[in-house]
Each structure stands twice: as C-alpha cells, then as structure tokens.
Design goal:
6-stranded antiparallel β-sheet, alpha+beta, single chain, 9-stranded mixed β-sheet, 293 residues, D-amino Acid Aminotransferase, Chain A, domain 1
Length: 293
C-alpha cells in the first residue's frame, strides 16, 4: 500500500509517525472516511467541507487547501490500483495536531500531521441486506454535546469503542447509544432511522449525534418519495414499537435492522420502506458522485 504522509506518497512500511504526535498521545485530531464508486468519489465536497469544519472547531490548521484534496485522493487510488471497475476505494483522511512536547497546549505542535490511506472497500455481506441485522442498546451513553460536540469528527473515538465492545460481547452487528436524557442518538459509526405508522423517524442532531452525510441524503430522498418525516427526540421504547428500522453511513448505504435487544422490530424482517429507500438510493446515487471526466 502507498500512503500519503504530510507531503508525499510513501510505501506502507515507511509511513511512520512519531510517538510524540499529539494524535497518538491525546487523540487530538480529526478525520474523514470517504468511498468511491469506481473512480468517482461519493459526496467528495461534503466530506472535505466537514473535515474543514471539524478542524476549525478544534483550532487545527489543515495545511492542504480544500481544492487540493481531490487530486491527492485520486492519487492515492491510482497508486494503490483502486477506484476502478473492479474495486471501489475506501479512503481515510487523518489530520492530527502533529509532533510536539508532552503537554496539552496545542502551541507545542508547530506542524500538523496529514495522512491519506486508500484500501479496497469491503462493504457488508450481501446476505445482511437480505436478512437484516441485530442491535443492542448500549449501557455506554453518548458524550454530552456540551463536553465535546458530536459534529466534530474527532480521532478520539473511545466513547464509540466502548459501545462497540458491548456489541461484540452481545454478538450483534452494532450498539445504539442513548444520550444523557435517555433518547436515541446513533450507532457507533452510523445514523439510525425507523418507520412508524407510515412516517420515517430519525433522531435530531440536537440529541447529540453526528449529522451524517448519507443521513441527509436519505431525508432528501424521503421527500422525493412523499414519505412523511419526523425528526425529533425518541425513546428506545418507541423504536421497539416501530414497524421497521435501518442504519445509514457512507460505506453501508442503507442497512436493515430486524431486532433490538433481542426483540423483533415489526415483522422481524427488512421492511418495505427500508427497501424502497435503499432502491431509490442505488438508482440515484450517481447524482452524488464526482462529475464524469
């Protein structure tokens, strides 16, 4: 694998970062995960804008201009022979505070560290979309927004990791986190939707969740399909009484959920609204890709 590190592409074995990097020491950094469909990157401008917003929120200067990122991302795909008819690409950008003396003062780090990794995208198995997945409600609560904003896509992911450990222990696909008031927020790497009495429901951003890029697309598509939408505050009990449920993120698109805490959602099978929205997403996703050359 070729990795972009700071100002050049280097072989994987040479992609080394100092133990004094504050991303390693303190989780002080931001990141984005992006995918391609063939050689066209999905929602590229939106992901890069979010990266910049996250960096601005923690006072981190990104040393690469916004208009330079697409060239570097395609360079990473080309060097790793990805982003083609055979293999979609998984791309990860990480920008850390950089190398500095031990201490919390950001001024200790004069130069941020920049990394781009490109790997073959490994989407969930097709059978998961056919039979759906199971979740638990985690005991771990989502971080208080007043402590750290969920709109910052930070490299400090310990809150999500603790919830993921619960899901692994329960042998389910993922864990759903509640906020400080016991309302639904999101899963460890995805947003959650559910259908109830013909309405599509999803927690609002002020519940303490990352307003996902694919989440926004699904809300837009629900409008196109004339599906009523309710964005608000919901309890786990409302989810358990729902007719169907699904998750969204950039790599999995729309994943049906058929049980939560071992209780079936609706009929315990992927629901018609879930399938309709996923089909509409697949049929129209070219609208969200980079322009053809």
């Amino acid at each position: 694998m070729w990795v972009f590190l700071n100002d050049r592409f280097v072989p994987e074995q040479d992609a080394k970062i100092s133990v004094f990097d504050h991303g390693f020491l303190y989780g002080d950094g931001v990141y984005e995960t992006i995918r391609s469909y063939g050689n066209r990157i999905f929602m590229c401008d939106h992901h890069l804008s979010r990266l910049q917003r996250s960096a601005d929120a923690i006072g981190l200067t990104v040393p690469i201009p916004l208009n330079e990122w697409p060239r570097l991302l395609h360079g990473a795909m080309d060097r790793n022979e990805l982003g083609n008819e055979q293999t979609d690409a998984y791309l990860r950008i990480t920008v850390s505070r950089g190398v500095g003396e031990i201490g919390l003062d950001p001024a200790l780090c004069p130069t941020p560290t920049v990394v781009i990794m490109a790997k073959p995208l490994q989407p969930p198995a097709a059978e998961l979309y056919q039979r759906g997945v199971s979740l638990i409600v985690a005991h771990t609560r989502r971080n208080l927004p007043s402590a750290i904003s969920p709109q910052i896509k930070a490299t400090n992911f310990l809150n999500n990791i603790l919830a993921k450990r619960e899901a692994i222990a329960a042998r389910v696909f993922d864990a759903l986190l509640l906020n400080w008031k016991g309302h639904l927020t999101e899963c460890t790497v995805s947003n959650v939707f559910f259908a109830s009495r013909g309405r599509l429901c999803t927690p609002s951003a002020d519940c303490g969740l990352l307003d996902g890029i694919t989440r926004a697309i699904l809300l837009q598509m629900a409008g196109e399909l004339k599906i009523p939408v309710h964005v608000g505050r919901f309890t786990p009990e409302e989810l358990l009484q729902a007719d169907e449920c699904f998750l969204t993120n950039t790599s999995m698109e729309v994943m049906p959920v058929v049980s939560v805490n071992q209780q079936p959602i609706g009929q315990g099978t992927p629901g018609p609204m879930t399938r309709q929205l996923h089909r509409h997403f697949v049929d129209n996703r070219s609208r969200y890709l980079e322009p053809l050359d």
